[in-house]
Amino acid sequence: MKRTMQGLVMASLLMVGVIGLASAALPEPQDPQVVANMTFDQRLQMSKDLREQFKNATPEERREYRQKLHAKFTALSPEERKALRDKMHAQWAALSPEQKKQLRENRKAMVAAMTPEERAEMKKEREVWMQSHSQEKDRWTKPMTN
């Protein structure tokens, strides 16, 4: 009887753990400055892992993730954002054409996994941001050349 009770308790704890892991579909967004200091391989692996987690997440969870990520960017000072943008542009310029292709394909796959409503919502968010940050619009829309 004692073993049966221990078995039930262990099974219950295991189920609670599995349910907890399943409900935590998306991790906390990384700090943008930490991501900027990652190597190409680390960043690519992180984005692949995130894409897999995005597939299993609900649209609400993905929206919450984007909002948290946006909050991390807005928490940076204008000088920090400018330094981060300049650093990312320099890193992009240093990538090989094959590495750029890998990153583009990964981003496209992540967006393709979203619902049409989510894509429209993201487009609207971007338009609102561009209108409210007209002084930075030219800098952020400057194409990252190959």
Question: Can you describe this structure?
Answer:
This protein has 146 residues and is an all-alpha fold. The chain has one domain (2-141). The chain has helices at residues 2-23, 32-36, 40-56, 59-74, 78-94, 97-112, 116-132, 134-141. Mean pLDDT is 79; it is low at 4-9 and 11-23.
State the gist of this model.
With 146 residues, this protein is mainly α.
Features:
146 residues, mainly alpha, 8 helices
Number of strands: 0
Write down the Rg.
20 Å
Distance between the termini: 69 Å
- H and E string: HHHHHHHH
Give the helix/strand layout.
Elements: H1 2-23, H2 32-36, H3 40-56, H4 59-74, H5 78-94, H6 97-112, H7 116-132, H8 134-141
Helix pairs in contact: 3-6
